Amino acid sequence: MSTQFANVIVHVSETLGADERVGLERAVAAQPGVGRAAVSPKAERLVLIDYDPFVTSAQRILETVRGRGVTAQLVGM
Hints:
The chain is α+β, with helices and mostly antiparallel strands. The protein is built from 2 helices and 4 strands. A hairpin with a 6-residue loop joins strand 2 and strand 3.
């Protein structure tokens, strides 16, 4: 049985340096149920995330981002 991933976009309010972006991607990707987390190559304030909605939620992902001291909000699902 394959996993049906949902998608969410998180907008980060501040500009992050390269190391901060990589750290953010890794922190989100390490969360159970997250299949992929990547800062958009065309819009560096957007984080694109694929996740299993049976394991985690968009709100929990947002909490992970904010837990890194970043101001952020959900902008798309």
